[in-house]
Amino acid sequence: MYKKFIEHTDIRDKLIFIRNDFNVPLSNDGDITDDTKITESLRTINYALDQKARVVCASHLGRPKGQKDEKLSLKRVAERLSDLIGKKVIFNRETTGPSIDKIKKDMKGGDILLLENLRFNPGEKDNDPDFSVELAKDIEVYVDDAFGSSHRTHASIVGITKHVPLSVMGFLLKKETEYLEMALNNPPEKFTIILGGVKVSDKIGVIENLIGKARTIIIGGAMAYTFLKAKGEDVGASLVEHEFLDVCKNILETAKNKGVKILLPVDHIAANKIEPNITIRMIKPGDGIPPDMIGLDLGFNTVSIFRKAILESQMIFWNGPMGVFEIDDFSGGTMAVAEAVAESPAISIAGGGDTVAAINKAGVRGNISHISTGGGASLELMSGISLPGLESLTED
Ligand code: AMP
Questions:
Q1: Helices (H) and strands (E) in the chain, counts
Q2: CATH of the domain at 193
């Protein structure tokens, strides 16, 4: 896909709108607990400011349901952004309206304004044409840098592009799509997908789309138990998505026909409940999980099988933890996979909030080639679904 790119666009002195993804995690007191999404956005923002553009930034934060919610104000993001770029970020708690129009008129080249949380207005999620027109007012170039929202047909992602002369990619969006499209369209021979977490429904499309292109598919986490059940194994009280049993059977059959390796856990760490500090039990290879126990992490044999496959890969796409990694007793499999991905010579792409948290917990962030800021968007793209946010940008 060849879309216009900010670096090849004249933005000098222009009023530009950058759609960022500042959807940062907050503590109960409203403090920003991880500012990665802001730091990842700096390249585009600093470039635009250096070009003396007049920069209007915008983002959503959380799920305020179309009305003002003080806890989800972008005020703290404005302050953190200001610290990071070393310059004042104008912020007046409005998204559109006369006060914003006036600020836009008064802005000089190199000035920056952050709008209030876009989702305070119901028009954002509804892709409302009137709200889109308001956002687009006087904007000369729209810059999309919010990969994490590019699977959403929202006003600041899609609607606005109908009312501005030019819609281009920012640096972050370009980097995200380049990595993912390399995996999607042009992977090396030894391409491995690692999927985990709970929701089979979110990830099944990735397997269906890439089976064959990926020669090895590693499945851990709760979703592995739906596959193991589909194979007729005893999974005890582990989480199983019964409506996906047939889909899993078909995938296992396709893999066999195409010579694709699907690696599933062969042993497990199980317990009666999902709780810290409870009695855990190792389930050996060949032993089923007893009816009253839940598989909660990979066993040691599984870890070494997964590790070997990861170290032999040339490219890896990973989304989803291998167990209930939030609890230390069940985090070993996910930590071992994070370490193996980091050690592997492969180009590694990881996405999804839990996966990124696990990578940070394992302290290997610096050894992953690309950490995607958009878990859901990256899964959709890898499933072969075209993203509305990318589709609506101007062709180069
Ligand atoms: P997802 O949002 O689908 O990627 O799922 C992430 C969640 O899956 C994390 O909160 C994990 O604790 C959870 N998880 C991973 N493995 C298991 C498992 N074996 N049983 C229950 N939950 C799990």
A1: 14, 14
A2: 3.40.50.1260
Please indicate, yes or no, if residue 86 is contained in any of the structural domains. Answer: yes
Residue having the nearest C-alpha atom to atom 8 of ligand 1: 197
CA distances in angstroms from 168 to 15, 20, 23, listed in the order given: 14, 13, 21
Domain co-membership, 154 together with 255: no
Q: Is residue 395 a part of any domain in this protein? A: no
pTM tops 0.90? yes
Do residues 146 and 276 both lie within one domain?
A: no
In this structure, the residue with its CA closest to atom 20 of ligand 1 is: 222
147 and 192 together in one domain: no
**What is the total count of domains within the chain?**
2
Residue 305 lies inside a defined structural domain of this protein: yes
Q: Which segments within 85-229 are labelled E, that is strand? A: 112-114, 141-144, 167-169, 191-195, 216-219
Cα separation, 131 vs 126, whole angstroms = 9
Helix axis angle for 245-258 and 200-210, nearest 10°, is 20
Ligand 1: list residues with CB < 6 Å: 196-199, 202, 221-222, 239, 295-296, 320-321, 323-324, 326, 352, 354
pLDDT digit string (tens) for the chain, length 396 residues: 689 999 999 999 999 999 999 999 899 988 998 898 999 999 999 999 999 999 999 999 999 989 999 999 999 999 999 999 999 999 999 999 999 999 999 999 999 999 999 999 999 999 999 999 999 999 999 999 999 999 999 999 999 999 999 999 999 999 999 999 999 999 999 999 999 999 898 899 999 999 999 999 999 999 999 999 999 999 999 999 999 999 999 999 999 999 999 999 999 999 999 999 999 999 999 999 999 999 999 999 999 999 999 999 999 999 999 999 999 999 999 999 999 999 999 999 999 989 999 999 999 999 999 999 899 999 999 999 999 999 999 998
Task: Tell me the residue range of the domain where 161 lies.
Answer: 6-171
Last residue of a domain, one of 171, 202, 222: 171
Is there a single domain that holds both residue 34 and residue 134?
yes
Q: Would 233 be classed as within a structural domain?
A: yes
Indicate the helix (H) or strand (E) that contains 210.
Answer: helix 200-210
